[in-house]
Amino acid sequence: MANRDALRAFQSRLASRLQAARTSDVSASWLAVEAGEAKYLFPLGHAGEIFPWVAPQSVPYTAPWFLGVANLRGGLFGVVQLSTFATGAAAPPVLNETTRAQSRLVALNELLEVNCALLIDRLVGLRGVDAFVASEAPQEESPPWLGHSYTDAAGGRWQEINLQALSQQPQFLSIGA
User: Fold this and answer.
1) Mapped to the 3 state alphabet, what secondary structure does the chain carry?
2) Is residue 56 part of a domain?
3) What residue numbers bound the domain in which 131 lies?
4) In the prediction, which pLDDT does 6 show?
5) Regarding beta strands 66-72 and 75-81, do their DSSP bridges make them parallel or antiparallel, or are they unpaired?
């Protein structure tokens, strides 16, 4: 009897939360992440599943930003270190246990048809347009996968990354060294 009452209470709470989510004006547009020294925004429609750190199997003769391949929920995914790819800087040293605990692999949405996961250093959460006080269009010489940059109330700069455009770039698809 107690289990039945607990189940009813749980179902009631779940139904009220779903209803509140449907009627609230809060809308998230991006997944906010940190990679290296930068803060990035991934459009929610482009981001896929988020996985804990899994050490990839290295692949010889590849670009320094391509870490290798990993089995993520039964699928084979290429793992790209976002901070190294985006900045072109040398790859940082191997992750220590503390850093590894916060790191995540963000898979690209399966609709993009690229089995790839981006290594990020830390998930920050969901962000909407209302979380920012200013925005700037990308500069003309910027790569086509960079979107607007946004400034939050604390003065932090967030760079939007169009994962769909990134997944179609020849330099992203060419992992050979």
Assistant:
1) CHHHHHHHHHHHHHHHHHHHHHHCCCCCCEEEEEECCEEEEEECCCEEEEEECCCCECCCCECCCEEEEEEECCEEEEEEEHHHHHHCCCCCCCCCHHHHHHCEEEEECHHHCCCEEEEECEEEEEECHHHEEEEECCCCCCCCCEEEEEEECCCCEEEEECHHHHHCCHHHHCCEC
2) yes
3) 27-173
4) 63
5) antiparallel
- CATH number of the domain bearing residue 160: 2.40.50.180
pLDDT bucket at 121, cuts 50 / 70 / 90: very high
Residue 16 is assigned to a structural domain of this protein:
no
Q: What are 24's two structure tokens?
A: 């609230």
Our count of domains for the chain comes to 1
Q: Is 95 contained in some domain? A: yes
CA 39 to chain centre: 11
Taking residue 113's Cβ as centre, other Cβ atoms within 10 Å add up to: 9
Would residue 163 count as lying in a domain? yes
What pTM, to 2 d.p., does this model score? 0.79
- Cα 32 to chain centroid distance, Å, stands at 7
For 82-106, write each residue's pLDDT tens digit.
999 988 776 665 566 666 788 999 9
